[in-house]
Amino acid sequence: MGVFAHPTRMFNSIDAEAHVRDAIGTPQMRIDVGPTVTMQPRDRLLIARDGLFDNARVPEIAETIRRGPLESAVVNLVDSCHRRMTEPCAGEPSKPDDLSFILYGRQGQSAPQARGAP
């Protein structure tokens, strides 16, 4: 089960229609399928919309998702992006937007902890 909307944001009808179209597609949409890639035990897969990349740099995202439990990485990304959306800071990416992403890792596989972490 996923979360469709942040409790503080109300979708207008145009937003809702866009989300439904994105979820079910249209006849003009297509998906290109490339070669199969086998995930290794510590690999993580991130699927994200522009709301993440408008509020975090790729190296920051990679560093956040590569260590520790998936749940912690998700919370850290959401908190960081929300902070940047609501409290812009010069020199940092910041654009109020919806934030949608999926972070996947094999169940039972933990990424290495940061040095010095318990």
Structure description:
This protein starts with 12 loop residues before the first helix and ends in a 13-residue tail after the last strand. The chain has a domain at about 40-105. The protein has helices spanning about 15-25, 50-55, 60-65, 70-85, and strands at about 45-50, 100-105. It is about 35% helix and about 10% strand. It is flat. It is mainly alpha-helical and about 120 residues long. About 10% of the residues are buried. It contains four helices and two strands. It has a two-stranded antiparallel sheet with strand order 1-2.
Structural class determined from secondary elements: mainly alpha
Count of individual helical segments: 4
Strand order of the largest sheet: 1-2
> How far apart, in Å, are the first and last alpha carbons?
31 Å
Q: Please estimate the helix content.
A: 25-40%
Mean pLDDT: 79
Q: List SSEs in N-to-C order.
A: HEHHHE
Radius of gyration: 16 Å
Which tags fit this structure?
35% helix; disordered N terminus; mainly alpha; 118 residues
